[in-house]
């Protein structure tokens, strides 16, 4: 596999996983939670490093997932105290992220942890850090991890499809039917955390947020059927990854930043041309209405 091929495949895996998760975030009106968790996982990563003095591996994943769950818990707790949910998310993620930044500068020493790396990732170095896999050969560590993450996300989406569908649209009805709404909420938040941290090191917080929110928001403009929305969102994520790479090559700029920019282009196209919610469709509809 070529250098370009590994980068595109890795970024596409981010688009696939985040595209699936993002749909449920949009439907639950929790888009800001993607931004919150993508930043607060930094705290979990730093604490895991302080304890183990290692910059990769299982401790980092565990620390990041715990930080994501802590974020979800604090947001729900503040919301239960009659603080508006989006305000709760803003308060929690800025505070925990700031603690992570402070710990990096005071306790991480010379470790390869920095704010720029956290925000932009290092996708250009992915093809050089490899691991051997049976029957396949040398595969980048990030690609293997993101493949496993995508499989986990697919398993959970298929397993809890009906439950997450009803809890996303009508949590009160779900509770009345005996569905464990709170438990499923934290299972979902765990999945968001796992997906975020698996993508974090490769593409950074900016692209994680872009891939979690924008493809799903674009898909929401094209269809109201959940299954189609999931397929469209993942497809938009892959398309943005591929398009963004070639934009970055053309402009000689940040790959992750260009991929995030590509998700914005997809949204703008959807916003203008989608058959029901697009600007053109709304204009045509308004012209047909009797005066």
The separation of the N and C termini measures: 61 Å
CATH class, named Mainly Alpha
Strand content: under 5%
Radius of gyration: 20 Å
Number of folding domains? 1
Morphology call: globular
Structural class determined from secondary elements: mainly alpha
Order of helices and strands: HHHHHEEHHHHHHH
Total number of beta strands = 2
- Give the count of helical stretches: 12
What is the annotated CATH architecture? Orthogonal Bundle
Strand order of the largest sheet: 1-2
Question: What's the mean pLDDT score?
Answer: 84
Helix content: over 70%
Main location: membrane
Pfam families: ABC-3
Membrane topology: Multi-pass membrane protein
GO biological process, one term: response to zinc ion
Task: Please give a structural write-up.
This protein has 291 residues and is mainly α. It has one domain (3-216): Orthogonal Bundle (ABC transporter involved in vitamin B12 uptake, BtuC). It is built from twelve helices and two strands; from the N terminus they run αααααββααααααα. It has helices at residues 3-27, 31-52, 58-80, 85-107, 115-120, 141-159, 161-169, 171-176, 181-222, 226-251, 255-273, 279-288, and strands at residues 130-133, 137-140. It has a two-stranded antiparallel sheet. The protein is globular, with a radius of gyration of 20 Å. The mean pLDDT is 84.
What attributes characterize this protein structure?
single chain; 291 residues; mainly alpha; ABC transporter involved in vitamin B12 uptake, BtuC; two-stranded antiparallel ribbon; globular
């Amino acid at each position: 596999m070529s250098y370009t091929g590994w980068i595109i495949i890795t970024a596409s895996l981010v688009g696939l996983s985040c595209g699936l998760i993002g749909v449920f975030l949009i439907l639950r009106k929790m888009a800001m939670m993607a931004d919150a968790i993508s930043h607060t996982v930094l705290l979990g990563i730093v604490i895991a490093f302080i304890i183990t003095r290692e910059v990769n591996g299982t401790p980092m994943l565990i620390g990041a997932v715990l930080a994501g769950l802590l974020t979800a818990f604090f947001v729900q707790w503040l919301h239960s105290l009659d603080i508006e949910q989006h305000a709760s998310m803003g308060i929690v993620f800025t505070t925990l992220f700031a603690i992570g930044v402070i710990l990096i500068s005071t306790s991480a020493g010379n470790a390869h942890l920095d704010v720029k790396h956290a925000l932009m990732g290092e996708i250009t170095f992915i093809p050089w850090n490899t691991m051997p896999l049976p029957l396949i050969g040398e595969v980048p560590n990030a690609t293997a991890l993101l493949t496993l993450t995508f499989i986990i996300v697919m398993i959970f989406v298929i397993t809890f499809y009906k439950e997450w569908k009803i809890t996303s649209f009508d949590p009160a009805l779900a509770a009345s039917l005996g569905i464990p709404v709170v438990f499923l909420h934290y299972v979902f938040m765990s999945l968001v955390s796992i997906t975020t941290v698996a993508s974090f090191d490769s593409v950074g917080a900016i692209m994680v947020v872009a891939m979690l929110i924008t493809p799903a928001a674009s898909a929401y403009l094209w269809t109201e059927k959940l299954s189609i929305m999931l397929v469209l969102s993942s497809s938009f994520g892959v398309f943005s990854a591929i398009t963004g790479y070639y934009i970055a090559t053309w402009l000689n700029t940040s790959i992750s930043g260009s991929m995030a920019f590509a998700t914005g282009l997809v949204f703008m196209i959807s916003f203008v041309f989608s058959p029901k919610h697009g600007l053109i469709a709304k204009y045509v509809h308004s012209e047909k209405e009797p005066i």
